[in-house]
Amino acid sequence: MIRVEHLSKAYRHKVVVDDLSFSVTGGEAVALWGPNGAGKTTVIRCLLGLIGYEGLIEIGGMDARANSKATRGLIGYVPQELGFYGDLTVAETLALSSDLRGLPRTRISEVIKSVSLEAESNKQVRELSGGMRQRLGMAVALLPDPPVLLLDEPTSSLDVDARRRMVSLLDSLRGPDRVLVITSHRVEEVGMLVDRVLALDAGNLVHECPPGELTGRLNLESWLHVVLPSSQTTTALAHLVAAGFDAHENGHGVLVGVSPEDKVSALGCLREGDFNIMDFEVWR
Amino acid sequence: MTATIGTTGSSVTPRAFELRPVTVIARKVVGEASRDRWFWLYCAGFAVLAGAITVTAVPDQGLIGSGGFGRTAASLVALVQLVVPLMALTLGARYLAGERDSGTLVFLLCHPISRAEVLVGTYVGLAGSMFAAVATGFGAAGLFSFLRSAPTDPVLLICLAALSWLLSLAMLGLGLLISSTVRSTSTALGTALFVWLAVVFLGDLGVMGTVVATRLPVGALFATVMTNPVEAFRLASVMALDGSLDALGPAGTYAVDRFGDGIATIALGVMVAWTLVTGAAAVLAFRRGDQT
Asked: What is the dihedral of CA B99, B274, B116, B292, to 10 degrees?
């Protein structure tokens, strides 16, 4: 469905994407993972033909450079920074998108329902919250029922609840005829959504692997922040250090260095010591 | 080549340039202009000034002969020379740059439409908006003349309105060219104001200064004047008013001697050429750019 060969992009003398090659077949969900500046968004913009590039991009068997209109017709795109006309309503925005694609407006209400924006369909876009705008972005992308979905950091501006709903929606969009390409810098999100991860660094493909292997390949370390009663913090810290953990006192608890695959062992250690775990969260 | 749109499948074959997206974008631009306070401020200002000119140029209907409307029309031409280029240049310059700043340009360009279609649609929409603005101004002038029962020449009024619109098309092309090449709305507006000063004031004063300094032959002076679309508008308008260019000095006299009645065609040709060349240059600049 998507074939990228020797893709390179430079702005003036700064190389942003360097000789990148990959392919995505029908039904696959792939993540472009990497830190800020890794070139993820640039790759997405090249796929859309929004910017010039060197190399070859084929989408649906067509050269994206020579057939940019046709290949964009195959793509639904949710940008990282959503730009909508603030004085248009949700329904009017989708009507404009529909008209630009030359599609009948019959799918608009169906798409509004699929992203749960029925109550907001007559609201102006400027009145929407960040989460609602993100869902409108999804609605615009889904309007043509596209075989290729490109999602640039689709959950970056969402709160925890909205993120959970977005991940659920994205999961429901997977299908044998659809390709999902998602950019993200969140390891846990990538693990939930995709079959394969392309890890980028400074425009280069550094790893290509299943999401479960990413943290091991990148030697990523997570920190487990465990909230404890203040009376137990010092003894819990000593207990963890004695058990071989890299632990530090932090605010209302302890911060424990853990491997991403084995976060639970630190919690188990504290439970064995009979410490009262009040809460915990994982920091990366 | 055929692309299948949708996972459920429906085939379309998009051509490189289609009228459908152009009309969709033009409608969108007209709709935005109708909600834009700056556009309405321009329209209101133009209408008030045009109405005021009509009132002050026709002080007492009892004393006015057939030349009365000529004086009003001459004043309207002077007003158009200042206001219409300013409106069209700033409207064109801030449009695409504004879309880029707000992120809506990406919204448009991620659809299966070409950059040329976006630019042409924008041009057509802004041209429609300028038509409304010019019609409002000249409509106000006609209305005030009618209300004061002053002599009015509707044909001349329509002719001047058409010339004003043509001038606005040339300036819109220039504005969109600016908008296609700069990165921010503020830079686009600053550049547009500089260009406005150049074509309206510096053009006139610069030519006069050049004549004095270099003793330019009158033919070269005329050619220099005619490269400025605002001057071409003035020439065509004066021709429409009374057919004599003597009021424009040696360049006007030379133009009549050299080209006769063909001068109006040349002036119109200059404005049309500015429209086409700046429009084409804007399309090329916008297609080439990586700016989204």
From this structure: -30
**Higher confidence at residue A177 or residue A149?**
A149
Which residue numbers of B have CB closer than 8 Å to A's CBs?
A: 1-8, 12-14, 16, 20-21, 24-25, 28, 32, 35, 102-114, 290, 292
Q: What are the structural domains of chain A? A: 2-218 (3.40.50.300), 222-283 (3.30.70.100)
The answer to whether residue B4 scores a pLDDT higher than 50 is no
B23 min Cα distance to partner chain A (Å): 9
**Closest Cα of chain A to B33: distance in Å?**
12
Place of tokens 């000095």: B249
For residue A137, pLDDT over 90 is answered with yes
pLDDT score, position B58:
61
- The DSSP symbol for B247 reads G
- Quick count: other Cβ atoms within 10 Å of Cβ B235? 25
Angle ∠(B269,B272,B277) on CA atoms, nearest 5: 115
Can you give the residue ranges of every domain in chain B? 17-288
- A37 or B291, higher pLDDT: A37
In this predicted structure, the answer to whether residue B23 has a pLDDT above a threshold of 90 is: yes
